[in-house]
Design brief:
The protein is of the alpha+beta class. Helix content is 29%, strand content 32%. It folds into two domains: 37 residues; 107 residues, K homology (KH) domain (GMP Synthetase, Chain A, domain 3). The radius of gyration is 18 Å and the shape is globular.
């Protein structure tokens, strides 16, 4: 029987405190704290990762978590992952206050190398399903950012 989205809803609650562009963010029910700062061009001191780095890091982390869930459904084994991400972001609106342009990521290119024993045809279906099911991949894609993943296999020993 298929799952119903309403019966599987998960609510996330976060709280933050900060001054200037620095803040500490904590998820309710978790002892983990994310410390956030910004690069000097954005008014920060670059003491901690920026919100942009967290967003892009979240994208590739979520892809890896989703890949593990999909692999379980496909009955394949995944071992190590490597992600190489490049994203273009025009700062004209954010920093300069430009009235035209797009304050979103323009192009997001991600090269993913997965160590797996999966064969090519299964691997292609696997990564297509991973992209379909990954909430942060979908968030970026549906925001209008041009997102392009390149998946490749590193065979196991």
């Amino acid at each position: 029987m298929p799952m119903s989205p309403n019966s599987t809803m998960q609510t996330f609650k976060l709280h933050s405190r900060g001054t200037g562009v620095c803040q500490e963010i904590q998820q309710e029910g978790s002892s983990h704290v994310m410390k956030v700062d910004a690069a000097p061009v954005f008014g920060g001191k670059d003491k901690y990762p920026s919100p942009i780095a967290y967003a892009l890091g979240g994208l590739i982390s979520c892809s890896q978590v989703t890949a593990q869930l999909v692999a379980k459904d496909f009955g394949i084994k995944l071992h190590s992952f490597e992600f190489y991400l490049t994203a273009d972001f025009d700062t004209a609106i954010l920093v300069g206050g430009a009235t035209e342009g797009n304050p979103n990521f323009q192009n997001v290119e991600v090269n993913v190398i997965v160590e797996t024993d999966a064969a090519d045809p299964v691997f292609k279906r696997f990564y297509e399903e991973t992209e379909r099911r990954c909430p942060l991949y979908q968030l970026f894609a549906r925001s209008g950012a041009k997102i392009n993943y390149h998946w490749s296999i590193r065979t196991g020993n």
